[in-house]
Input
Amino acid sequence: MSEKGPENQPVETSEPTEPTEPTEPTEETKAASDADRVPEASRWHLAMREITTGNALVAVLSVLLAMFFGSLMILFTDEDVRYGLSYFFARPSDTFYYAWEAISGAYVSLWRGAVFNDLGGTFTQQIKPITETLKFAAPLTLAGLGIGLTFRAGLFNIGGRGQMLLGGAAAAFVAVKLDLPMIVHLPLAILVGALVAALWGGIPGILKALTGAHEVIVTIMLNYVGYYLVFYALTRKSLLQAPGSGNPKSAPMPESAILPDLLGPKFNLHAGFLLAVLATFLVWWILNRSSLGYRFRAVGENPSAARAAGINVGVAYTSAFLISGALVGLAGVNQVLGSVTDGATSGLDAGIGFDAITVALLGRSRPFGILAAGILFGAFKSGGFFMQASEGIPVDIVLVIQSLIVLFLAAPPLVKAIFRLPTKEA
Amino acid sequence: MSTVDLPVNSEAPAVAERIPGLWKTPGVMAAFTVLVALLVLIRPRSGDSTFRWSRDGDWFTIPDISLPANGIVWTAVALCLLCTAYAAWNARAGRKTPLVLVSAFAVLAVSGFMSWAVAGKTLPVVGLLAGALALAVPLVFGALGGVLGERAGVVNIAIDGQLLFGAFGAAIAASLTGSPWVGLIAAMIAGMLVALLLGLFAITYWVEQVIVGVVLNVLVIGFTSFMFSQVLSENSAALNNPPHFPRLEIWVLSGIPVIGPIFFRQTVLVYMMYVAVFLVAWALYRSKWGLRVRAVGEHPKAADTVGINVIATRYRTVLLAGAIAGIGGATYTLVSVPSFGREMTGGAGYIALAAVIFGKWDPIKATLAALLFGFASNVESVLSVIGSPVPSQFMLMLPYVVTIFAVAGLVGNSRAPAADGVPYRKG
Output
């Protein structure tokens, strides 16, 4: 919470700023920069480095470790295993048999639900899981891109829920209230959704730029405000509520505003995934090729240095949040116009706004990393639902595995210590 | 908000330069005054607003007070205007708005709004405040935990996880043993477990603390929801049927009109809250231990130089903070709700976090901020029973809107502990 707003910092920023040499600073200079200089300037810098220095091996081991802990949870709660444990000393082999059954059953069904179902009768049924994975990956990637973008600018956007709700509700409003040909209707609904979410998402940026209000608090609060705003709209016939209904739910989306199926009516995969891939390229271009992205990264690395270099930090904060809001809003649009088209509800975000934080962290805030992380978490989600249906293991275990992966990834020394790998840092 | 960027007043250049955003507080006060005035202008109310002050069991009964609603609102608006004008005059002279004035303003604005909302009906003031206090208990414990952690330099976003895990532990332990006291201890241990993870990653492995906190919250939600569906829901009679703390009336004190029913007819957890607030505030500012905690949070290197073990101090403080937040979690399953449910805290930990920052990292002020949140949520439930002219969704979002205004306008000058969120690397 120690990040201060721009105007709270001293105006004169002629103090030595972070040198931008490409080599990694040694531990000594890192420690010195913590103690001697303004800590705010280097916090995110260090945090991002913590995440980015982990190598591929650590990533794989993190996933394995997380799955191991997930297995433990399955073991200790499995009926058969507990039954086997009750006579463990009489016949220990039973316990091990049941344990193997429980864990292999869980992970096999996770695989069947996420990638390839060898039990499916037809080829379509067999490959359906992978398309489901991509369907779930689309909103996670879109929202993850938005949140990752703010990370790169040194900001933290916990407001994904509110931005998704506002974006989804606005898109639903355009979809339900207007009657247009598809070629106009669908793009208009998507655009309006993104625009409304961008304006909503821009609020914390503007407040941070003008008053120094901490964006973590503001985005958390805006989640609740957005939720109740959308809930209000869903209870008013003049706004979103379906005619002739008492439920807080909008009418089903008309055909002309629904994202088209990509692989025909047999699969649920819709054009939202294309949107996510396009957005990935767009964000990559913004961050790595545009001057705006350069400013984001400069501000994210060191706001004082960026200010000294003539970058308007407040404008950078605001525009980062605007773009972030639009991207997260697209995730909401994707839900309303693509995945759940029978009407918008106040639960349309389905927790994706928070999941996306872990997606952005796992993807190390790099656009293509986020796409990969989104697909991985999409696979977990798709597989998790399948596992819940076939093995009776609650889908919540996916949350545990996901959060453990992110935690382990962020602490490579811990993973290396667990596996007794050599570490440079001692 | 446009007043923020006004050029520095020529009369007090030195002062205004030191305190940026001097005009924010009067600006926000003006905005709220206009809001209250707009309410009556757009929808004037007829009839009297009645305020009930007494409850059964008081020594003597204070009669209900009935006043014309519009009259009260306009009086409140006028007084609010006076406060705003005084604050503006202060800002012009280069002085900060005193906290007393802000508090007086808040009371006035709230009274104005309440009398507008309950026109023609009766508002049970005592019930409103007593309920607010009860609702605020988890928030206060959570905020105290947050203050302690951040004072030692560890940002704790995981308050929500600690509350939820505390509620979970309390429900199971109390159901198994049949004693709410065992449940309370289990809740403290559960909160400490989350704190231990926070410490492991934030203190030992230097992971960005905001990230650890957010991820820990997800972890606890996933774990408790998994256990809830997998274990608790099948054996709810044995595992999720906790006994509750009874309401304790404190001898003599509970009979005092107004004050008694609000403060002294509560459960033992509320009394523990009084003690905890006092103890934390006293220990942080008046004890050797508190001095060390604050030193570690402000300038860990200096603290290390004089022989304070920074890492150990941070661990101890974070664990203590986790235990305190765990008590807050116990409130859910041992007082308010019959049994544990999925994500039952509903993000209360995030509100507690807001209270920490709103309260400028001070235990007393953070407690007051948490009480404010409790009050705002109880206003909504009381008004929805009485029937209010405002759609309930807008009442529900009020505390969050007020927080945004407050964070943007009133707390802009606050300063976190200097080393808050910065891992300590020796060398």
Summary: The two ends of chain B are 45 Å apart (CA to CA). The first strand of chain B starts at residue 48 and ends at 52. Chain B touches chain A through 68 residues (CB under 8 Å). Strands of chain B lie at 48-52, 65-68, 122-124, 247-249, 265-267.
